[in-house]
From TrEMBL:
Aminocarboxypropyltransferase that catalyzes the aminocarboxypropyl transfer on pseudouridine corresponding to position 914 in M.jannaschii 16S rRNA. It constitutes the last step in biosynthesis of the hypermodified N1-methyl-N3-(3-amino-3-carboxypropyl) pseudouridine (m1acp3-Psi). This is 16S rRNA aminocarboxypropyltransferase. It catalyses: an N(1)-methylpseudouridine in rRNA + S-adenosyl-L-methionine = N(1)-methyl-N(3)-[(3S)-3-amino-3-carboxypropyl]pseudouridine in rRNA + S-methyl-5'-thioadenosine + H(+). The lineage of its organism: Archaea, Methanobacteriati, Methanobacteriota, Stenosarchaea group, Methanomicrobia. InterPro entries: RNaseL-inhib-like_metal-bd_dom, Tsr3-like, Tsr3_C. Its EC number is 2.5.1.157. It comes from Candidatus Methanocrinis natronophilus.
Amino acid sequence: MDLLIYTADQCDPKRCTGRKLERFRLAQTTKRYNRLRGRLVLSPFCERALSPADRTEVGRGLAALDCSWAHAEEVFGKVRLNGRALPFLVAANPVNFGKPFKLSTVEAFAAALVILGEREQAEEILAKFSWGHVFLELNREPLAEYAAARDSREVVAIQGEYL
């Protein structure tokens, strides 16, 4: 599945998971919002949760917005495209380890890929990070349940059990 990252250039380049994915040619980056059209955009501010039913909505691929969490609302607020929120998951990245919903770009892509039935690609992108496998281990049960859900409502109900 094609992965595109809108970058706001707000992250520490040494810690930026999006840039590392680009270096390994596992994702492309852009600074133009119009390149997000035709893609399913992962956004924590969307009302609808990502589910396996969204596989038909992916179109040209998945997109993520790579920015500092301190400026997330401002950056994500500019995007009015086909978006979905990820359900409850716990971060494994060194910056936000153990924090719910504070996923890095690679973790967001990996979670979406697992939910959409592309686990192999999720493992491939996470393999570039020493802590990548930990993300799948920490979230093994909820990811399996979300991936087995029929639609967004079911994903939200499953998420409610974890919250």
